[in-house]
Amino acid sequence: MKRIPEHIGIIPDGNRRWAVERGLAKEEGYAAGLQPGCELLRLCREAGVKEVTYYGFTVDNTKRPAAQTKAFSHACIQAVELLSKESATLRVIGNRDSKMFPRELIPYTQRQTFGATG
């Protein structure tokens, strides 16, 4: 009998290195990680994991060059938009008072259910 965790926390990492290894700008790596993140959510659902937490924009991310923080912020917005098209319950958490918190994500700071099963 397999033991499936009820909750998994995911810290996406390596997108900048992935981009550089392919001759791309570091900020291009963020968008490339979006679809694999959605696929991972689907795999977790299929395996019976009840809750998945993606850790996104951290204080360390705010210390990167402006082009990278802008691209990362945009990728966070895109990630939430993609996840809102999945059958999932979604809640974005973070310091909404920070100037770095994407205003587009404010509506998602209240738990919302998308799709038939959430």
Mean pLDDT: 87
Could you estimate the helical fraction of the residues in percent? 25-40%
Number of helices: 4
**Order of neighbouring strands in the sheet with most strands:** 1-2
Output the radius of gyration: 15 Å
Distance between the termini: 26 Å
Strand content: 5-15%
Uncertain stretches: none
What shape does the CA trace take?
Answer: globular
Query: Major β-sheet, in short?
Result: 2 strands, parallel
Q: Please, what is the oligomeric state?
A: single chain
Number of strands: 4
Which series of helices and strands comes N to C? EHHHEHEE
Structural class, by secondary structure, is alpha+beta
Topology:
Blueprint: E1 7-10, H1 15-21, H2 28-32, H3 34-47, E2 51-54, H4 66-83, E3 88-90, E4 112-114
Parallel strand pairs: 1-2
Antiparallel strand pairs: 3-4
Helix pairs in contact: 3-4
